[in-house]
Amino acid sequence: PEGAVYQSLENMDYDAWRDMLEINLLAPFKVATAFHDHMAASGLQLHVLMSSGLASIEDNVGGSYAYRSSKAGLNMLASGMGREWDDVITIAMAPGWCRTDLGGADAPVDTADSVRAQQALFAQLSQADSGRYLDFNGATVAY
Asked: CA-based, 20 to 30 A from 12: which of 39, 53, 66, 89?
């Protein structure tokens, strides 16, 4: 929801936070579990949960609590699914600070460049990568 990303500890809109959790955490869980068997039977066998660098607890600089917590929860799902599902590679992907409506015009990463890098990375992943939190260049992001 618009405006919820930059809420502070002192100013939190709980309805917006719930909406963000529904969109960024619960919906991806529902999709992943509903389509797991189909993904396992597919040729690619890859499930990417679209996270954010802002989800890193270790690299937390504060602010954006609703967004950060929703994406940190998503990372937990990727980690758990990666451990439990040995028939599908599951990762949390931080696509970079991209020029989008959310990232803004001044973001340093071109969206098309991020997508191309992600596609190249996906082709190199193996089951050993399942459960990892990666950026679009394949570097490990600290949980």
From this structure: 53
